[in-house]
Amino acid sequence: AFVWGELCDWYIELAKEALSGADAEKKRGAQAVLAHALDTALRLLHPLMPFVTEELWQTLKKAVGAAGWAESIMVAPYPETRSEDEPAERSFGPGQRR
């Protein structure tokens, strides 16, 4: 639900201005958030779809020049849970229609 509903439906749409705009700092920030979200989503999906996620993760790793990443998604650490930013969720929620 997160990848499709939050990342694809909302974040990418909201980030389009930064990604296509002239402000290099905003563009780098939006790209960093997308890379982090995709990296995390692929590591979460890896146990269920190992060959597809490995291929996509290697492509992402090369595209972002992530020299500090593990050699393979197989040995990359599994994402840890963190607490939700409830104030941010509440402030953003009214703008979303489902």
Polypeptide structure, described:
This protein has 98 residues and is mainly alpha-helical. It has 4 helices and no strands. Helix 1 (2-20) runs antiparallel to helix 2 (24-45) and helix 2 packs antiparallel against helix 3. The longest helix is centred in the middle third of the chain and has 22 residues, at 24-45. The chain is globular and about 35 Å long. It starts with a helix and ends in a 6-residue tail after the last helix. The mean pLDDT is 87.
Kindly state the number of beta strands. 0
Indicate the mean pLDDT: 87
Give the C-alpha Rg.
15 Å
Morphology call = globular
Number of helices: 4
Percent helix: 55-70%
Oligomer: single chain
Order of helices and strands: HHHH
How would you sum up the major sheet?
Answer: none
Cα(first) to Cα(last) distance is: 12 Å
Main structural class: mainly alpha
The stretches of 5 or more residues where confidence is low (pLDDT under 50) are none
- Please report which band the strand proportion falls in: under 5%, 5-15%, 15-25%, 25-35%, 35-45% or over 45%: under 5%
